[in-house]
Amino acid sequence: MSGNLTSVTEFIILGLTSCLELQILLLQILLFWAIYVATVAGNVGMIALIANAWLRMPMYFFLSHLSFVDLCFSSNVTPKMLELFLSEKKTISYPAYLVQCYFFIALVHVEIYILAVMAFDRYMAICNLLLYGSKMSKSVCTSLIMVPYVYGTLTGLMETMWTYNLAFCGPNEINHFYCADLLLIKLACSDTYNKETSMFPFLLIILISYLYIFPSILLIRSTEGRHKAFSTYGSHLTAVTIFYATLFFMYLRPPSKDSVEPGKMVAVFYTTIIPMFNSMIYSLRNKDVKEALMRELLRKKVFL
Q1: In what order do the strands lie in the sheet with 10-13?
Q2: Alpha helices in the chain (DSSP H)
Q3: How far apart (Å, rounded) are the C-alpha atoms in residues 228 and 213?
Q4: DSSP codes joined into one string, 269-295
Q5: CA–CA separation, 231 vs 201, rounded Å?
Q6: φ, ψ for residue 10 (rounded to 5)?
Q7: pLDDT value at position 64?
Q8: How far does Cα 274 stand from its chain's mean position?
Q9: Residue environment code for 195-212, b if the CB has 16+ CB neighbours within 10 A, otherwise e
Q10: 86 neighbors 29 (Cβ within 8 angstroms)
Q11: Which of 76-80, 102-106, 216-220 comes out lowest in average pLDDT?
């Protein structure tokens, strides 16, 4: 059955909570608006800082792209969520649903592979330090960063087409606050095997990178050297752990009615909180970023 045979033309997004009390709704709107503003400010600030503060190491080049993807990821979800908070008619057309699904899937895969590229960069910096400058040249970094964007774009398109080819012939209520692909396929009355198994292969990529990094760090003889190596990629490891923990919870737990509400809370975390936290993690835990920020603030103070 193909997508154009479906009898469903729009979906009802039930939102984050069924509570209709005005004070609680206003509190939620203010909270998520503040988080979104902080996300935009943090990620735009990180991109501008890296561009203007001469942070020219490959790690910061990749970090600027991670900030860009986090900014796009949050902008794909939060404004629509705020619109649903304020709207009496919480519906979205099937084409609009597919568009948000496409950007969500594409941006998730782009972020996953940017984190993998950053893990590879940390592996080269720690395990092949003498060859790091020649191996991670500007052209190599540009080629590496193109892979996540191409892969994410194609994967998002492929999975969105799989969703389009599903048939929806029954209920159209989705108990979530954004266009969640996993909940959408539960409403389908056709085979969903390709959709359900498409999210898992990427999980091995970063894990393999760290299987190489950890033994190499432990083999460093000096305590100072090991400490420096751990601090070099500590921020990255923190961001990866938070991101993957939420993905594991969302995609590897057995689906049930009881798991919907906890799933929404976790989804809030990785759609709104993580894009805000990433810029904070890399700025507060990274000595170079903190020093560059202080130099920029002092320079602007002098000009004022």
Answers
A1: 91-93, 10-13, 173-174
A2: 22-52, 58-86, 94-127, 132-135, 138-164, 181-186, 193-197, 203-218, 223-252, 260-268, 274-284, 287-303
A3: 13
A4: IIIIIHHHHHHHHHHHS-HHHHHHHHH
A5: 29
A6: -150, 160
A7: 92
A8: 7
A9: beeebeebeeebeebbee
A10: yes
A11: 216-220
* CA 244/CA 24 separation, integer angstroms: 30
Per-residue confidence (pLDDT) for residue 2, from 0 to 100: 45
Q: How far apart are CA 142 and CA 139, in angstroms?
A: 5
**Closest listed residue to residue 113, CA positions, set 74, 138, 145:** 145
Q: How far apart are CA 58 and CA 211, in angstroms?
A: 21
pLDDT for residue 169: 73
| Contact status, residue 97 vs residue 181, Cβ threshold 8 Å | no
What is the C-alpha to C-alpha distance for residues 12 and 168, in angstroms, rounded to an integer? Answer: 13
Q: Is the pLDDT of residue 186 over 90?
A: no
The single residue listed with the structure tokens 């969703």 is 163
CA dist., res. 6 & res. 170, Å (int): 9
What CA–CA distance (Å, rounded) separates 229 from 126?
6
- Closest C-alpha among 57, 69, 63, 64 to residue 124: 57
Report the alpha-carbon angle 298-301-302, nearest 5: 90
3-state secondary structure of 10: strand
The H-or-E segment that residue 13 falls in is: strand 10-13
Q: What pLDDT does 149 receive? A: 96
Q: Which of 247, 99, 246 is nearest to 179 (CA)?
A: 99
Residue tagged 């594991």 (tokens): 248
Q: Are 286 and 53 in contact (CB under 8 A)?
A: no
As a whole number of angstroms, the distance between CA 36 and CA 239 comes to 18
Give 257's DSSP letter. G
